[in-house]
Amino acid sequence: MSKIHVTTTVNGEPAEFLCEVQDSLLDVLRDQLHLTGSKEGCGSGDCGACSITLDGRLVCSCLVLGVEAEGKTIGTIEGLANGDELHPLQRKFLEHAALQCGFCTPGLLVATKALLDANPNPTETEARYWLAGNLCRCTGYDKIIRAVMDAAAEMRGEHA
Amino acid sequence: MPRLSYAAPASVPDAVKLLAGAQGLAKVMSGGTDLLVQLRSGRAKPELIVDTKKIPGMMGIRETADGWVIGAATPSAELSEHAGFSAAYPGVVEGTNLIGSTQVQGRASLAGNLCNASPAADSVPAMIAAGAVAVVVGPTGQRSVPVAQIVTAPGRTSLAKGEFIFEFHFPKVSGKQADAYLRFIPRTEMDIAVVGCGVNLTLDAAGVITAASVVLGAVAPTQVAVDATSIVGSKLDDAALAALDTAARAACNPINDKRGTIEFRTKVAGVLARRAAKIAYDRAGAR
Predict the structure, then answer these.
(1) Distance from chain centroid for Cα A117
(2) What are the chain A neighbours of B3 within 8 Å (beta carbons)?
(3) Residue A160, in any domain of the structure
(4) pLDDT tens across B237-281, in order?
(5) 8 Å CB contact of B37 and A45
(6) How far is A21 from B258, CA to CA, in rounded Å?
(7) Which chain B residue lies closest to A65 (C-alpha atoms)?
(8) Which residues does chain A have within 8 Å of residue B76's beta carbon, measured at their own beta carbons?
(9) What CATH number is given to the structural domain containing A65?
(10) Overall number of domains in chain A
């Protein structure tokens, strides 16, 4: 049986793959394109570990069909750092020890990046609500929120 | 098992033809946040998925002389980002803002939330209270159906084979009219409504209520309208609020489950009706 051919853009680069209808975009990213930063936690849109951007909008890639990526622009965790230079969010997550096992971290970073793109100066409450769909079993969230608020301040140029 | 097919038609007639002509089960997809979960769990076993997002008009928000037109597949995030619609219908947007996470709201649509037909769907009570109308397209053409008449039972709708919702029409908000939506969940975010309540009130210049629509979710097999005649003609004083509480409890026919007992849901329905009515009243008064 023939698979469906899909042409898309991932982290600014053209990409193509073959998939079945029922394959999620997360399956495709991990298994066809070998971008394994996005994780499968729940497979039902509850945990946020598979967070990506689709045409700039934050979504769970487990709730997108691979075939829907045709002609779209996808952003994953692999596009966050600039080569070997970590994004300020990644640096602040390390500085604040905002992770232990790290499984939720790519999703949290992608979700936080989307937050700060939309709102560079969120309140802590806004950040906590925005990230309510990213579950973390290790940190208790406090260190994550501290890293997010610190990175946001740095990105606004407040610590020079 | 037959292979699952996918189509993303570019027009309503093409989508209707695909849906109506399907041999087995065909599912309409908008945001897919319910459909993909059902596919993965095996609860839905369609032979065809028709993705409606490429049909012009299915995505987007526009203001007309008569009110607002919302494409059926428009993600809820677009509703909350739309300053004009959020100002006109803050209660509808309060409902859509409670559907899942930020990620889910990036995809989840009004049509999906409605046609998934959960009694607890957060966008539905305020849509019904607003008097929103669904434009249904299908093999016999187009018909306008009040949102209140779409859901017939948990998981069931009044749509026939080959039909889907193309857009929603929200009436123009004029004068001192406003809405509000509240839900109760045991925590602050990411849960399913134990009770939800949408209220839409219209006041006269003196602050007397001239029209009231109060709709409850998660307390019956479908969303239910509360008899709100007792608050019409009042300024929502304590006596009117007490009467509304009684009317809301009388409209309940809930289930017992892990989220809430029959007794608890019934009591909370009265409380939320009062609180949401107060919010809507204050908003309407400020207009």
Answers:
(1) 13
(2) 1, 21
(3) no
(4) 999 999 999 999 999 999 999 999 999 999 999 999 999 999 999
(5) yes
(6) 35
(7) B36
(8) none
(9) 3.10.20.30
(10) 2
Residue pairs between chains A and B whose CB atoms are closer than 8 Å? 84
Task: Give the Cβ contact number of residue B229 at 10 Å.
Answer: 10
First vs last Cα of chain B: how many Å apart?
Answer: 58
**Chain A interface test: which of B79, B98, B101, B109 (most A C-beta within 10 Å):** B101
Instruction: Find tokens 């908003």 and name the residue.
Output: B283
Supply the CATH classification number for the domain B5-51: 3.30.43
Give the full edge-to-edge strand order of the sheet including B176-184. Answer: B176-184, B195-203, B209-217, B224-226
In chain A, residues with a C-beta closer than 8 Å to the C-beta of B6 are 4, 21, 65, 67
Tell me how far apart the alpha carbons of residues B22 and B26 are, in angstroms, rounded to a whole number: 6
Q: Nearest chain B residue to A60 by CA: give it.
A: B103
By CA distance, what is B99's nearest residue in A? A133
Which domain covers residue A103, as residue numbers?
Answer: 88-155
Domain B61-171 has CATH 3.30.70.260: no
The answer on A130 and A72 residing in a single domain is no
Whole-number pLDDT of residue B187: 85
Q: What is the pTM assigned to this prediction? A: 0.96
2.60.40.1220, 3.30.420.240, 3.30.390.50, 3.40.1620.10: CATH of B176-285? 3.30.390.50
Q: Is residue B157 exposed (0-12), middle (13-18) or buried (19+ Cβ within 10 Å)?
A: buried
Clarify whether residues A93 and A151 are in a common domain: yes
For residue B18, the chain A residues in CB contact (below 8 A) are none
Has residue A62 been placed in a domain? yes
Q: Is residue A61 part of a domain?
A: yes
- A119 and A58 co-located in one domain: no
- Residue in B with minimal Cα distance to A119: B81
Q: Name residues whose C-beta falls within 8 Å of residue A121's C-beta, 6 or more positions apart in sequence.
A: A152, A156
Average pLDDT of chain A is: 97
Nearest Cβ partner of A57 from B36, B40, B77? B77
pLDDT band, very low/low/confident/very high, at B3 (cuts 50, 70, 90):
confident
The Cα of A84 is separated from the nearest Cα of chain B by a number of Å equal to: 28
* Residue A130 forms part of a structural domain: yes
